[in-house]
From TrEMBL:
Its main location: cytoplasm. It catalyses: 4-imidazolone-5-propanoate + H2O = N-formimidoyl-L-glutamate. SUPFAM superfamilies: Composite domain of metallo-dependent hydrolases, Metallo-dependent hydrolases. InterPro entries: Amidohydro-rel, HutI, Metal-dep_hydrolase_composite, Metal_Hydrolase. 4-imidazolone-5-propanoate binds at R76, Y139, H169, Q235, S312. Zn(2+) binds at H67, H69, H232, D307. Its cofactor is Zn(2+); Fe(3+). Keywords: Cytoplasm, Histidine metabolism, Hydrolase, Iron, Metal-binding, Zinc. GO terms for biological process: L-histidine catabolic process to glutamate and formamide. Catalyzes the hydrolytic cleavage of the carbon-nitrogen bond in imidazolone-5-propanoate to yield N-formimidoyl-L-glutamate. It is the third step in the universal histidine degradation pathway. The gene is hutI. This is Imidazolonepropionase. Pathway: Amino-acid degradation; L-histidine degradation into L-glutamate; N-formimidoyl-L-glutamate from L-histidine: step 3/3. Its EC number is 3.5.2.7.
């Protein structure tokens, strides 16, 4: 075995590797060169000089927020008030508000303003146990601002960042539809990719956003560039988005409240993860539940994310998203924990690197002062994370 740099000991571990939460009580974890090299009962642990006793705390994989729109200008608090007064999300979008109003605020913001507001939000997610975050573009909707958003996302500190190109998020004002889609597909995505700013490609398939042909053109380009895809699918209506995503071998189909049996079957065949976003469901006061039982029966992996964005989900706590997934969508606390660890890693194409506590994985870990893993999803707004390690380094 490689020389061990650190042994975390006197802890209970939810490995998320194996049945349930893969629990090992009175355990230890050995770390070398940024990776986990051994995990098991403390009595079997290798002898090493540098140990850290955790006094019976629980250790989980670092949490992974696999769907956020963390970089944006302004807020949409006025629209939120209008929605509380009864106006719908679609109606606000149709009168030029919604995503377009965040686009105006994002274009007007300087890089420093975008960076500092996004860092404040990322710090809140990190306090809730996040060690990896996915961040989308999609509030620039022009060449310059889409790339600016992705650069800013890459400059944030304190967590691993995975970047998604979301040029097809909304049609900006004063641009012809065909020209816009063609430019995003043929010019902006390749330029962002050439600069190394894109890990994956996302789009919003919806009656108020883009259609199947437009998303297909984008996904073909993504595939030609060797980039994995994912999709905002079937959020407000059954647009057959999950099936479209699956036909491109997408890493994930996200939202999926309105996904039908055909979509679930297609996702099962392609190994596409269902990313559940209960913060958006809650904020938009949706009533149509995602087909959780069908996902379970078909063995479609379910992830849970905050969808942090200024319009439909101003949510900055992944444990709170876990609670909503349990209370509103009927996930078990173990499923919710798998949803922010193992399955969230799969939704980012990183299951070989992060998401479980197992030999060979990166040592991204969180220690929690809790009595049992279900307590992570239990509190509404209390954070019990005490320590975090990214690649074996305490942060
Ligand atoms: O994931 N559905 C589309 N995109 C976001 C909402 C973005 C916004 O309203 O600003 C979502 O919910
Ligand atoms: Fe989203």
């Amino acid at each position: 075995m490689t020389a061990i740099d650190l042994l975390l000991t006197d802890c209970n571990v939810a490995t998320m590797d194996g049945p349930g939460v893969g629990e090992i009580t009175d355990a230890a974890i050995a770390i070398a060169q940024g990776r986990i090299v051994w995990v098991g009962p403390r009595r079997d642990a290798p002898q090493v000089a540098t140990t850290e006793r955790l006094d019976g705390q629980w250790v989980t994989p670092g949490l992974i927020d696999c769907h956020t729109h963390l970089v944006f200008g302004g807020t949409r608090v006025g629209e939120w008030e209008a929605r509380l007064d009864g106006e719908s999300y679609e109606s606000i979008a149709k009168r030029g508000g919604g995503i377009r109003s965040t686009v105006a605020a994002t274009r007007a913001a300087s890089d420093d303003e975008l960076r500092s507001s996004a860092q404040t939000r990322l710090d809140a997610l990190i306090a809730g146990g996040v060690t990896t975050v996915e961040i989308k573009s999609g509030y620039g909707l022009d060449h310059t601002t889409e790339l600016r958003m992705l650069r800013v996302a890459g400059e944030l500190q304190g967590a691993r960042v995975v970047r998604s190109f979301l040029g097809l998020h909304a049609l900006p004002p004063d641009v012809a539809r065909e020209t816009y889609v063609r430019d995003m597909v043929e010019i902006v995505l390749p330029a962002a990719h050439a600069e190394g700013l894109v890990d994956q490609v996302d789009a919003f398939l919806e009656t108020i956003a883009f259609n199947t042909d437009e998303v297909t053109a984008l996904f073909r380009k993504a595939k030609a560039l060797g980039l994995p895809v994912k999709l905002h699918a079937d959020q407000l209506s059954d647009g057959k988005g999950a099936a479209l995503a699956a036909s491109f071998g997408a890493l994930s189909a996200d939202h999926v409240e309105h996904t039908g049996a055909d979509g679930v079957a297609a996702m099962a065949r392609s190994g596409t993860v269902a990313v559940l976003l209960p913060g958006a469901f809650h904020t938009l006061r949706e009533t149509k539940l995602p087909p959780i039982d069908e996902f379970r029966r078909a063995k479609v992996a379910m992830a849970v994310a905050t969808d942090c964005n200024p319009g439909s989900s101003p949510m900055l706590s992944l444990p709170l998203a876990m609670n909503f997934a349990c209370v509103r969508f009927g996930l078990t606390p173990s499923e919710a924990l798998a949803g922010v660890t193992r399955n969230a890693a799969a939704a980012l194409g990183m299951a070989h690197e992060i998401g479980t506590i197992a030999a060979g994985k990166r040592a991204d870990l969180v220690a929690w002062e809790i009595d049992r893993p279900a307590e992570l999803a239990y509190w509404l707004g209390l954070t019990r994370a005490t320590r975090r390690w990214i690649g074996g380094t305490a942060t």
